[in-house]
Amino acid sequence: MGDAAEASPRKAPGRCVLFGDFELDLHEQALRRSGEAVKVPGKIYQAMVVLIESPGDLVTRDQIRNRLWPRDVDMNYDANVNTTVNKLRQVLGDTSDGANFIQTIPRRGYSFIAPVRYADVPAAKPREERKSEAMGSRVFVELAEVLRSERARIWFTASVVTWVTAAILFAGMLLWHSRHAQNSVKSSAQVIDKQALDKRQ
User: Fold this and answer.
1) Domain CATH number, residue 69
2) Could you say which DSSP state residue 9 is in?
3) What stretch of H or E contains 18?
């Protein structure tokens, strides 16, 4: 395959490219590591995208230069490409002792050697989103507790009112029964007195 064909950007088969602990969100142009946002300056991000578009393949310095500095023909692009790729290695955690992501092909270019996977939706949510979700859950729990305690207070108040009402009704019934009994006794006494009076007459 010629350099011209290799230089044309490829479209990733998914929104997100997953490699190692990293997730590259092409829609948001954001890199996350284990869900934590990783700050990547513009040119370094662009170099990463160029390399990741052709995983396992040789990406020449010319390809990187044409994508990152297409109009700066007079600049020392070779040194800039080397510097940019080295900074990308630092972002990804590659060291001079070993390369887990970017391999140098001497006098030719670079190759992205880490296995990649693709996803249509982000696999890991940013820390800010997780924080907001946690806060939302906490607010919901606190609200539920407040409602529960409010409901408990309402039930307690209702129970007290019910018991007080029942006690008042019971006391009223006792009072009514007592008065009724007294009236009955008085009525019986009046009847007896009347009968005794009739006999005397």
Assistant:
1) 1.10.10.10
2) P
3) strand 16-19
